Amino acid sequence: MIDFVTAGESHGKALVTVVSGFPSNIEISSEYINEQLKRRQAGYGRGLRMKIETDKAEILSGIRHGKTLGSPISMIIWNKDWENWTDKMNPEPVDVPIEKISIPRPGHADLVGVTKYNFDDIRNSIERSSARETAARVAACSVARKFLSEFGIHVGSFVESIGGIYPKENFIDKFFANKINSNYSAEKLNKISDKSPVRVLDKEHEDKIIRRIKLAKKKGDTLGGTFYVVITGMPIGIGSFVHYDTRLEADLAHSIMSIQAVKGVEIGRGFKMADEYGSAVHDEIVLRKGKISRKTNNAGGIEGGISTGLPIIIRVAMKPIATLMSPIGSIDLSKMKNIKARRERSDFVAAPACAVIAESMAAWSVAKLFLDKFGGDSIEETRANFLNYTGQLEKRLKENFNK
Ligand SMILES: Cc1cc2nc3c(=O)[nH]c(=O)nc-3n(C[C@H](O)[C@H](O)[C@H](O)COP(=O)(O)O)c2cc1C
Ligand SMILES: C=C(O[C@@H]1CC(C(=O)O)=C[C@@H](OP(=O)(O)O)[C@H]1O)C(=O)O
């Protein structure tokens, strides 16, 4: 069973992660991990913090000469901003006065955090609830991503909308129509979306979105968005219907909903399917040149909690950023008075970054259920188990039904 934990406060010294359960001999380097960290930091509409940080993972254990050892992998990402916070975030008591924060921002974790943890300073809630933590997640999930790529499984994403600005043509319709060539890889999708500062697929759409973000910024407001995560190269049979917690879509939804500010996850056509006739949405099974195939992929690559072998398609909704430069109403807890919410350095939009984080978390879910199925202490053992299974699927079906 693979597992990871992250630790670290947003303005503390560093973020750390410990990743366990992966087989030995997976080729992975800090260069690979840092590429993912860089993708997470990109995106038009982010705040000044991203100009301070250049996230790099330093590998402390579990990898030798570019290959996993099977032992826990630990990594550290230093916070460059720490040097501006040495007193405010010092783990030791300090003898300088530290101003306490008493005005919670609606939409952030400020009020629930101080109430639940019995704090007298909102700073204590901000630090760990902040999405800064996702840098450590992306580093941890890079191991899952690299592992999956060894089996031809790739995870990609693109932004569908920001602030309600949708593209004219929905590229994903091709995936739903199952018209994408089976050699198409989500890696290729990233090659297109990574080039766009808002991670969309066409220039006209990008221009409209950037105009929308500029307007929001001018108003002191923020925006959310929707994006797709696509996983290609899936074999049939990952996940299971035998237990609630082994269902693939349940694991994916949990992983992605755990990301700060994510408020909705759809698998395949999701909510749209609820409005249609069954005959219009279920993916007809057909024989193409003797091979079992589907006419469409409205299910988004999962049936009965198990991967169908078609691309997995996940749509995600992120709410607008909570911190507003033209704030809405809140209270000052120290005076118990109505007041406008507190302003502080913040992103205006983070949906493009969020899409990369969601890719990472999706890779984690798939790797977990993949390893549950194929196991192995070394990647060679995992590969042998994988090939043994995938190599015999059609043969077994024929044998079982043509007795
Ligand atoms: C990549 C990313 C960046 C974010 N940046 C900010 C930010 O700069 N300011 C802010 O108020 N919220 C930001 N958020 C959202 C908050 O972290 C989130 O709203 C908060 O932790 C409360 O959690 P909830 O929205 O899930 O309820 C960001 C989220 C993500 C995923
Ligand atoms: C630091 C990151 O995101 C941060 C997430 C965040 C929040 O409230 O979630 C608030 C901002 O932090 P700060 O207050 O330091 O400007 C973002 O920059 C990051 O993604 O690496």
In short:
With 403 residues, this protein is of the alpha+beta class.
Q: What are the key terms here?
A:
binds the ligand C=C(O[C@@H]1CC(C(=O)O)=C[C@@H](OP(=O)(O)O)[C@H]1O)C(=O)O; binds flavin mononucleotide; 14 helices; lyase; 4-stranded antiparallel beta sheet; 403 residues; Chorismate synthase, AroC fold; FMN; alpha+beta
Structure overview:
The protein has one domain: Chorismate synthase AroC (Chorismate synthase, AroC fold, 4-Layer Sandwich), CATH 3.60.150.10. It contains 14 helices and 16 strands. It has helices at about 30-40, 50, 110-115, 125-130, 135-150, 170-175, 185-195, 205-220, 250-255, 270-275, 280, 350-375, 380-390, 395-400; strands spanning about 5, 15-20, 55-60, 65, 65-70, 75-80, 155-160, 225-230, 260-265, 285-290, 290-295, 300-305, 305, 310-320, 330, 335-340. The protein has a four-stranded antiparallel sheet. The relative contact order is 0.17. The model has no long low-confidence stretch (mean pLDDT about 95). The protein binds flavin mononucleotide (FMN) and the ligand C=C(O[C@@H]1CC(C(=O)O)=C[C@@H](OP(=O)(O)O)[C@H]1O)C(=O)O. The ligand C=C(O[C@@H]1CC(C(=O)O)=C[C@@H](OP(=O)(O)O)[C@H]1O)C(=O)O binds near residues 47, 132, 344, 346 and 347. It comes from Melioribacter roseus (strain DSM 23840 / JCM 17771 / VKM B-2668 / P3M-2). Its EC number is 4.2.3.5. This reaction introduces a second double bond into the aromatic ring system.
